[in-house]
UniProtKB/TrEMBL annotation:
Domain (Dihydroxy-acid/6-phosphogluconate dehydratase C-terminal): residue spans on this chain: 408-601
Keyword Ubl conjugation among UniProt keywords: no
PANTHER family found in the cross-reference section: D-XYLONATE DEHYDRATASE, PHOSPHOGLUCONATE DEHYDRATASE
EC numbers: 4.2.1.12
Record-given protein name: Phosphogluconate dehydratase
Organism: Rhizobium wuzhouense
Pfam families: ILV_EDD_C, ILVD_EDD_N
Comment on bound cofactor: Binds 1 [4Fe-4S] cluster.
Length: 605
């Protein structure tokens, strides 16, 4: 089925806008392909270093140019639940590669930090920049030019975007992303949220809070709410970097291992040495990026991807904008209710029909492009399946059901949970920002209230605990942008603002910082740009100014006269405390050169 005419129109304008940069990118990619994507370009000395520790049989294989070699880029560490399962993957991949007549080597490791651990802590100020550091680290591993294809082991917030930037930077190589899957279901997400809110109110202590958190995050795999990590997995599947059905199978299961082996063999099959050469830079195009954005809206995915998708697209020479993302959100209905947009977790989403059912529904209405290339072959229709474990231990696939196994979690095109994706670009005299309203009640889509200004999130926490916020207000938390302090997530603000909202007050948040995929019921205008440290209008807001946040009209305004606003001096704040500690001093140069949020907040583009 051809794509909906509105989807086609947005795709075409992205293609037109991207022509100058996309043509340059494709030319570079094709020149790299023509030079040789494997070991034929290396001298004997280069090659000897490259396989010095290999087995005799692998050395013999790598000495020629007829056996493909996979470069493994891994985000393994054994502190983070989502990445701990990757410990055993290299051995599994090497075994599967050998069975298929190939070789696999760990090309390099990349850092993997957890926003859940660093939330509200100094280390969070490294989080966004870790995305670009991950891309750079992956590039170092692949720069040895020993490889015919790459497989990427990563799951969480900045890791997958960083790895995709690397995959497109090395766009002459085929690339397959291999996930680890979500942890099994623990304490229900709404119960975890309830305990957090009680803790914020002082009604339970740290022991009760820690018990609830530990029951939620209890084993190997990604957190089960639909934040950035699980949005990443959805994106990699709908954009064609995963094998069909790979995203949400739990770690440590036979099906998970079978999918990993299959991904390895598929990566070998799509190298230049075979008949299905699929370089990542040519595989991913404007249609693939639009499919990713559509999937984000249809599932109520993470606001972090209003940054990441732009940066990821730019790595492939594609110029995606917030306006594109917002316009697609107006078209695409919300088909999934996964926490914080509902009570279910990603395991419930998968059990209800998962990615296969979702993609089938989107294809049926023409909301995604079917005529795309993927690591599995041609066409997105191949992803409308339900993965199973065959009797021989391999992966089998059945057609995705026409009926949701749980309509409260995953619905159909003709009965969506809401008519749009709930992610909107905001514009006005405060600049540009974005808002996610898929979990915000309709009566809170427009908030007009006096501003209370804070220069860090602790100030708001202190004011809440002191009882100074028992009124209608819009919290303006500024100097939280990329150049100020690395743009940390401000998710710790959600419980106190949620408490105040539940007490009947009209509250909202306006910030040049980030929230996250875990943001929920409180309206929040985030990623406001220009940021305060760059002299953006947010730096000229004063306590008591009336701000109007209108997620329906897509506007963000401070209701003072233009002359009055222009005449004000920009506020300043002492950021010295953000310059040192927990490695922040090492990222000073990143803060100086970081781009604005609407261009991906990157130091690379």
């Amino acid at each position: 089925m051809s794509a909906d005419s509105r989807i086609e129109a947005i795709t075409k304008r992205i293609v037109e806008r991207s022509k100058p940069t996309r043509e340059v990118y494709l030319d570079r990619t094709r020149r790299a392909i023509s030079k040789g994507v494997h070991r034929s370009t290396l001298s004997c000395g280069n090659l000897a270093h490259g396989f010095a520790v290999c087995s005799p049989s692998d050395k013999a294989a790598l000495a020629g140019d007829v056996v493909p070699n996979l470069g493994i880029i891994t985000a393994y560490n054994d502190m983070l639940s989502a990445h701990q399962p990757f410990e055993t993957y290299p051995a599994l991949i090497r075994q599967a590669a050998a069975e298929a007549g190939g070789v696999a080597q760990v090309a390099g490791g990349v850092p993997a930090m957890c926003d859940g651990v660093t939330q509200g802590q100094p280390g969070m100020e490294l989080s966004l920049f870790s995305r670009d550091a991950i891309a750079m680290a992956a590039a170092i591993g692949l720069s040895h030019n020993m490889f015919d294809a790459a497989v990427y082991l990563g799951v969480c917030d900045k890791i997958v975007p960083g790895l995709m930037i690397a995959a497109l930077t090395f766009g002459h190589l085929p690339s397959v992303f291999i996930p680890a899957g979500p942890m099994t279901t623990g304490l229900p997400n709404d119960e975890k949220s309830r305990i957090r809110q009680l803790y914020a109110e002082g009604k339970v202590g740290r022991a009760e809070l820690l018990e609830a958190e530990s029951k939620s995050y209890h084993g190997p795999g990604t957190c089960t709410f639909y934040g950035t990590a699980n949005s990443n997995q959805m994106l990699m599947e709908i954009m064609g970097f995963h094998l069909p059905g790979a995203s949400f199978i739990n770690p440590g299961t036979p099906l998970r291992d079978a999918l990993t082996k299959e991904a390895t063999k598929r990566a070998l099959a799509i190298t230049a040495l075979g008949n299905e050469f699929t370089p990542a830079g040519e595989m991913i195009d404007e249609r693939s990026i639009v499919n990713g954005v559509v999937g984000l809206h249809a599932t109520g995915g993470s606001t972090n991807h209003t940054l990441h998708l732009i940066a990821m697209a730019r790595a492939g020479g594609i110029q995606l904008t917030w306006q594109d993302i917002s316009d697609l959100s107006d078209i695409v209905p919300l088909l999934a209710r996964v926490y914080p947009n509902g009570l279910a977790d990603v395991n419930h989403f998968h059990a209800a029909g998962g990615m296969g059912f979702l993609i089938k529904q989107l294809l049926k209405a023409g909301y995604v492009h079917d005529d795309v290339r993927t690591v599995y072959g041609q066409g997105l229709a191949a992803y409308t399946i339900d993965p199973k474990l065959a009797e021989d231990g391999t992966v089998s696939r059945e057609p995705a059901s026409e009926v949701s196994a749980d309509p409260k979690v995953l619905s159909t095109i003709d009965k969506p949970f809401q008519s749009n994706g709930g992610l909107k670009m905001l514009t006005g005299n405060l600049g540009k920002g974005v808002i996610k309203i898929s979990a915000v009640k309709p009566e809170r889509h427009v908030i007009e209230a006096p501003a209370i200004v804070f220069h860090d999130q602790q100030e708001l926490q202190d004011a809440f605990k002191a009882g100074k916020l028992e009124k209608d207000f819009i919290a303006v938390v500024r100097f939280q942008g990329p150049k100020a302090n690395g743009m940390p997530e401000l998710h710790r603000l959600t419980p106190p603002l949620g408490v105040l909202q539940d007490r009947g007050f009209k509250v909202a948040l306006v910030t040049d910082g980030r929230m996250s995929g875990a943001s929920g019921k409180v309206p929040a205008a985030i990623h406001v740009t220009p940021e305060a440290v760059d002299g953006g209008p947010i730096a000229r807001i004063k306590d008591g100014d009336i701000i109007r946040l209108d997620a329906i009209a897509g506007t963000l305004e401070v209701l003072v006269g233009a002359a009055e606003l222009a005449s004000r001096d920009n506020a300043t704040t002492d950021l010295d405390a953000n310059e040192f500690g927990m490695g922040r001093e090492l990222f000073a140069s990143f803060r100086r050169i970081a781009g604005p949020a609407d261009q991906g907040a990157s130091v690379l583009f």
